[in-house]
Specification:
By secondary structure, the chain is α+β, with helices and mostly antiparallel strands. It is built from twelve helices and 36 strands. The longest helix has 21 residues. The relative contact order is 0.07.
Length: about 725
Amino acid sequence: TLFILLVIFIIACNRDDNNPPDDNDNTVTTEAKIGINGGVLNSDDFEITVPAEAFENDQNIKLIAKENNDTGFDNIVSKIYTLEGLPKNILKELKVKIKYNGTLSGETFIALGETNFISSLAKENTAYRLLDAVDSSGYLICTIPKTENNSKSGGGLVFRSDNFSIGLLAVSGYMTYKSENGHFKIKFPIRYEEYIYDLGRYLENAYSKFRDIGFSYANRTKWPVSVTVKGLANDIFGYSACSVWGDNYGYMEFNQNKLSNSGEIKVSAGHEFFHLVQALYDPRNRYSKAKFQSPYLWLDEACAVRSESFFSDNSDYVSPNFSQNANMILKGAKNYSGSAEQVQNYGYGMSAFIKYLTDKYNDGIMVKIYDKIYDGSGTFDAIDVAIPLETDLVWNWFIKKLFSFEIYKESGKWSKSWLSSYAKQNKRKFTINSDADTVFKYTGKIPQLSAKVFSIDNKYESLSSNSVLRIEAPGTNDNKIMVFKVNNDESIFLQEGKDTLSINDFKTLTENHQLVVLVTNRKLEEPYTSEQEIKVTLKVLSYLDIKSIVSEIVLQGTFTYQTDNSNTGTSQSTLSNFGEYGGDYYTNLKEKISIFGNIITCNQDTVFDLNFSNPSYTIHVSQKRTRTIELDDILDPKRIVSYKYHFVENQESNQPDYEYTEKNETFISIQDIPFSHNFNKTMYFKATGDISNHINQLSHSEVTNGKNYGSDYTISGNLVSYNITGGNIRIGLEMK
């Protein structure tokens, strides 16, 4: 069988077109060995003449005949033949005679069928082009052209075998129309004439459009393109095909039953002609281009789908091929190779990326990409060289615009609600129904050049108004977190970041919306198949609503104080404890607490008088306490990074004969106190035992100026050294 690769487009691309003949129903009519001297193979109703030097070697040629087959032609006037054993190189034209049956009408042709791997069907299928034939005494006669070598590589055809097959049959009741500028010759059943002039115009428009963008047609030296109109599967509008004969023989088929749908035919004509243009940039030899799945398949489809909007009357046109395959973008670059259907669907989805590039730069960026393909680059390498920034550097910008619906507007399955539905289908949806629903965890793998989608649906009406969504996705420089708020009417980008991201006003944002989180991976390194392990945690947290601070700092060891007395001189004393004055402080400080970032500041200013009698006098006291607490995370604290306590007290006494003023000042700085436990709405941080490594700084000073029966004195004291051997640090944040 002759296989040729079709580079094709089918608006709905999942069903069979015309099936190749079933070998079980075939009967070998005749066979002959034909070599360099030429020869003839014939039967009662078929003859093929091979001139001398047409074949380079001896070939065993077999003729198989069948009465009928589903070829899509309305008026077949002969048996259907399969010619097996043709050599890879046909150096001269071959002459074919086929006996026809019945009465001929209109124009009559011999259809040459090449059984190809059709990319959009992801399997082999037979496509036909019509050869001009003349009627001679009950036989139709045509010539099969010689094969050409117009590949860039200049020879070196690689075949899985040294021969191939073709199908041949006679059809009648046709007409021919050559498009206005002569680039397309359309052969069609007479009854569809009213639609053909529009088809010719659509094809010429496509020819002009891609030429004006900057594509070169230099590698095709023979025009017009052969276009066959016949019956195809019901959901197929048309496709284009490369030929094993070479670039000059690339051709197209359109579905006669879809011609009345002018909008889709117009788009299909543009898409399909672009595939023929792309094939001119394919550096492989003619046989490989026709026979095998293209290594550029996803890029070909992505560019062709992007180009459809050039030919649509809808200014907001979105290809159904994109809308049905947008999810392939999220599945990553590993889909650039694999089964034809998988690769094709990846290309359909990635049309949005090509549109992003053409919108950002211009349509000519596609020409630059295909110039690099022609020079031998792979698909991603070609894009990287063609655009100012490499693919991985623009990936996150693309994702942001795509899911903001700035590249393609809603159409079909591509809708605002699609993202949250996709997350649910893949078990990455976090639904909040009660206080108990606070954490969602995911562990998995993320491919190169892709994104994972998570949705958050808040159904809990009693959720705290100061709730925050915390997103944790620790990764590399290749990863980014993006957040959108989404409903049926809008998809609004909110925020982006790396590793950890907090979304404030969570309750407000989720009123009539869901939140959608994307974790992207922009990495792009050959062979593009590696995947990165990721762990994603979604948490619903609240800012600390602190009622009071509970602090107890008791330090044990040796604490040496030096006292200077203006009357008695200098002395030292040693104590075994040091800490916050008064031990535990349980003080309601609501109006004194401020929070900025991860830092809590608590101020308490106290002024009071101590009144005495017999004798009557007053001690006026003013105190100022400042506590500064830095947490590692204000929303989900695991430790106190630093705690600073500063206490200043001033006293003034008017006691007769013993007047004095006094100032006491204590400063304690500690660090790295781990979370211990929660109890009765209080979050405790605690350190015990050898706590010396938690102490940064200690200081204490006292200064007293007074009179003792009219004699002035000054006493000052300072903590001059310390050695901490134990103790207890306990700091609590009591919530309302």
